[in-house]
Amino acid sequence: MTSLRDEALASKAWPFEEARRVLKRYENAPPEKGYVLFQTGYGPSGLPHIGTFGEVARTTMVRRAFQEISDIPTRLICFSDDMDGLRKVPGNVPNQELLAEDLNLPLTRVRDPFGTHDGFAQHNNARLCDFLDSFGFDYEFASATEYYTSGKLDEMLLVALERFEKIQDIMLPTLGPDRRATYSCFLPISPKTGHVLQVPTLERNVAKGTIVYQEPDGEKVEIPVTGGHVKMQWKPDWALRWAALGVDYEMSGKDLIDSVTQSTKICKALGKTPPVTLSYELFNDENGQKISKSKGNGLSMEDWLSYAAPESLQYFMYLKPKTAKRLYFDVIPKAVDEYHQQLRAYPDQDLKAQLNNPVYHIHGHDVPASDMVVTFSMLLNLASAASAHDKDTLWGFIGKYAPDATPETHPGLDEAAGFAVRYYENFVKPAKTYRAPTDQERAALQDLADRLRDWKGDVEAEALQSEVFAVGKAHGFDPLRAWFSAIYEVLLGASQGPRFGGFIALYGVPETVALIDRALAGELATD
Fold first, then answer.
1. Cis status, amide bond into 321, omega within 30 of 0
2. Rounded to whole angstroms, how far apart are CA atoms 352 and 40?
3. What percent of the chain has pLDDT over 70?
4. Which of 53, 56, 62, 203 supports an S-S bond with 18, CB 3.0-4.6 Å?
5. Does one domain contain both 510 and 447?
6. Is the dihedral of CA 82, 88, 94, 99 positive or negative?
7. Is 66 exposed, middle or buried (0-12, 13-18, 19+ CB in 10 A)?
8. Final residue of a domain: which of 388, 404, 431?
9. What is the Cα–Cα distance from 15 to 396, expressed in whole angstroms?
């Protein structure tokens, strides 16, 4: 009998493929530090956004997969680059004039425009941690400011000072002429203004551990590279962290491929082995534009959770990380229904299929049962047909369709019903456009209504679906999907919809007849 570890070692699910790449680092000996370190990075120059969450969720999936194939302990650090200087004011925060006054200060020294924390970075860091905590992620939060000022990076900073020229030789060919002339991998924190300065390093004293630079007012200043007196430029900073902490795995967006390349070289120049890396595709908004935390376009984490349970967001994050996906409101219903479809499949799958099922990578071995006896898409169509303003209206139909289901016995379904009403009110209802039927469609709809009036069979989705098919064929619809398009556009005011037999079973036969009658009387198209 194949063991769990054997199946995990052979699984083609992408988290297991990534985990095997990490394990290969230690095929000869375990890590000297005693654990494998996974890391995610976050820049708190704007509010946390859904891409940040996705990086933690996906890295957690790789970490879980690693724990199936190895007994080496693991840690996950979520690192905030909160010592970076504020270079521009984000467009989606209040009190922007306040932030404009604090440009070039480290983000932890920039005043909080929301007035709730000691600094802008502290506010954004807290929001990130609150959100990650709500998902139950096992991680350790790390602040660049704390790591620099506490001395945790001092030893490697002194190595970087010693190997300054090697780092410069890696970075300078990647820069334009003007930037190359003034570039230094060290960014002094001015003792006069507190600003993070982009100035050349004029002198180095390796024995003393100091550099000399020139202030904007012309004064030359000598400061140590340790103790938080300097930070490093972005790519050297990333490499410094990898080298100092012994990071084994980190993923990042494809826009950082060049950064990964240069940071890898610098990590090696510092005498350390760079981590295994994965470059994932970026999320786009509905217009195909890259989602940006400073622009605030696309979906936020809060947006998604206003309309669906968090597990559906994790499911969306699991899917094909190397494939670009549009992330906007219309993807939510599909993600919810696919997630529950996978939940329903899991108990009957063999071990190999379970390890390939996305819900394993979301829940581990504690995969819950789905209580969605009605799909989210069907709930949306039910809300539309019933013009529902609250979930109690939907339960009036659900109770007849599934008498054993109640809000108490099916809490996931109850939550989904509330989400469906909210989604319908905000996205479906404003876009609904009913049209009048053509002569062919009118005759077919009348026939369907007459057959449903005379319906004597069980109110069962498949039988009703067969009847709907039969009507379409009898009235010469070719292709038959034109008949279903007509149903959706005339009765539901939408371009697509559910399996209509299932809709009838849920909404009710008499109620569906009444809906058809209203459409044929012109009441819907004139609303």
1. no
2. 29
3. 96
4. 62
5. yes
6. positive
7. buried
8. 431
9. 42
Identify the residue whose tokens are 């819907």: 524
pLDDT at 131: 79
| Helix/strand/coil for 251 | strand
Sole residue written with tokens 């039927």? 437
Q: What pLDDT does 232 receive?
A: 98
Q: Are residues 381 and 406 in the same domain?
A: yes
Q: Check residue 426 and report its DSSP letter.
A: I
pLDDT at 435: 94
Whether 430 shows a pLDDT value over 70: the answer reads yes
Same domain, residue pair 413 and 444 = no
Size of the chain, expressed as the number of residues it contains: 527
Residue 473: C-alpha distances to residues 221, 365, 412, 439, 503 (Å): 86, 47, 38, 16, 20
pLDDT value at 257 more than 90: yes
pLDDT number for residue 291: 63
pLDDT of residue 296: 55
Amino acid code (one letter) for 320: K
pLDDT at 295: 56
| Whole-Å CA distances, 383 to 395, 404, 489 | 10, 21, 16
Distance (Å, whole) CA 452 – CA 474: 15
Main-chain phi, psi angles of 14, to 5 degrees = -60, -35
Tokens standing for residue 272: 């350390």
SS (H, E, C) 290-303: ECCCCCCCCCCHHH
| Phi/psi-derived region of residue 390, left when phi > 0, alpha when psi is between -120 and 50, beta in every other case | beta
Residue 183: strand, helix, or coil = coil
Do 133 and 126 meet the contact criterion of CB atoms below 8 Å apart? Answer: no
Number of domains composing the chain: 2
Q: What is the DSSP letter of 347?
A: G
Cα(254)–Cα(74) distance, rounded to whole angstroms? Answer: 26
Angle (CA) 283 287 290, round 5°: 35
Residue 35 belongs to some domain of the structure? no
Beta bridge partners of 38: 76, 249
Distance (Å) of CA 243 to CA 32, 194, 285, 352, 501 = 14, 27, 35, 37, 61
Q: What is the band of 47 on the pLDDT scale with cuts at 50, 70, 90?
A: low
Both structure tokens of 240: 């410094």
| 396 lies in the same domain as 463 | no
Within a domain: residue 53?
no
pLDDT at 78 over 70: yes
Q: Which residues contact 499 (CB under 8 A, 6 or more apart)?
A: 461, 465
Nearest CA among 386, 443, 374, 377 for reference residue 413: 374
Q: What is the mean pLDDT of residues 431-455?
A: 95
Determine whether 181 is exposed, middle or buried from the number of CB atoms within 10 Å of its CB (0-12, 13-18, 19+): exposed
* Residue 487 exposure: Cα atoms within 13 Å on the Cβ side: 28
Q: What angle do CA 186, 188, 194 make, to 5 degrees?
A: 150
Q: What is the mean pLDDT of the chain?
A: 93
Is residue 416 a part of any domain in this protein?
A: yes
Task: Report percent pLDDT > 90 for the chain.
Answer: 83
pLDDT given for residue 324 in this prediction = 85
